[in-house]
Amino acid sequence: MKHATTIVSVAILITVALGCSQFKRDEAGVTGNATTTTAASASPSPSSSQDISGTYDITGMNENGAGAYKGNLTVTHRGEVYQFSWDTAGKKYDGVGVQTGDGVGVAFAEGENGKGCGVVLYKIGADGTLDGKAGYWGNNSSETETATRTKGTDLEGDYDISGTNTAGQNYEGKLAVKKAGAGYTFSWNAGAPLEGFGIRQGNTVAVGIGGSKCGFVSYERKPDGTLEGKWGGYGSKSVGSETAKKK
Questions:
Q1: Cα–Cα distance, 196 to 235 (Å, whole number)
Q2: What sign does the dihedral 168-83-204-103 (CA atoms) show?
Q3: Can you give 145-163 as a three-state secondary structure string?
Q4: Where is pLDDT greater, at 163 or 67?
Q5: Is 246 left (phi over 0), alpha (psi -120 to 50) or beta?
Q6: Where do the domains of the chain lie?
Q7: pLDDT of residue 48
Q8: Own/partner pairs for 155-160, CB < 8 Å, 24+ apart?
């Protein structure tokens, strides 16, 4: 969704066709997320959101119920985004996350970094308008976007979009959302085509960008600070679940 020079490398990665998620986690695996490596001093969360930085114990279930997993998660504030770093049985994942209220969206990749991954977290309004916040691995700035539905019902349909990218530049364009498998495909065009895949949780939807190498998580922050999540990969036909409890 990043509609500026910083999105070019991501857009190239989105040419992968929809298929089964490669992020099936075995019993030794763990949900991964993309992290921003660009150094930045921690900044306070928006007043509407409570800072989720910290260390967590995680337990989860793979897609299709294919085995449970557990491990550790470290969440670090990086400017306007968060870094998510998992370690389960020595297997590492890293990602970038954005937060709006009690909703958190994360994009991740296996390994030490999530290069090429991005995430958009939309809040779904009563009138169907989508208010989005996006983050991209390697960039500590966030992007905002508003999508106004012009055709369709529920989440599916066509939208007019306008926003401000991580470089502070305004953009306008089109967005099409279609149901696919366990989630939805998001197809943007704001001068160049870009595609993502997302999962809805309540009145939010987290959309992963970056093709088959990138997975994504949609978390809901509970009153006690626990993060309850659903996760998947590009074109997932089912989703996994994860609970992260702060230590």
A1: 9
A2: negative
A3: EEEEEEECCCCCEEEEEEE
A4: 163
A5: beta
A6: 5-246
A7: 55
A8: 155/124, 155/128, 155/179, 155/184, 155/200, 155/205, 156/184, 157/128, 159/130
* pLDDT above 70 (res 24): no
- Phi, psi torsion values for 63, nearest 5 degrees: -55, 145
Residue in the structure block whose two tokens are 């409570």: 50
List the helix and strand counts (H, then E) for the chain: 1, 16
Q: Which amino acid is at 209?
A: I
> Which residue matches tokens 């870094």?
83
**Contact by Cβ (8 Å): 208, 107:** yes
Task: Return the structure tokens found at 43.
Answer: 């900044």
Amino acid at 232: G
Tell me the H-state helices in the chain.
Answer: 8-13
Integer Cα distance of 26 and 98 in angstroms = 26
CA separation, residue 17 to residues 108, 236, 241 (Å):
19, 12, 24
Q: How far apart are CA 92 and CA 113, in angstroms?
A: 9
Residue that is written with structure tokens 């001093």 in the block: 41
List, for residues 189-204, the tens digit of each pLDDT value: 998 899 999 999 889 9
Q: Residues 122-162: pLDDT tens digits?
A: 999 999 999 999 999 999 999 999 999 999 989 999 999 99
Burial per residue of 42-52, b for 16 or more beta-carbon CB atoms within 10 angstroms, e otherwise = eeeeeeebeeb
Give the residue carrying structure tokens 């969704």: 1
Report the distance separating Cα 213 and Cα 34, nearest Å: 11
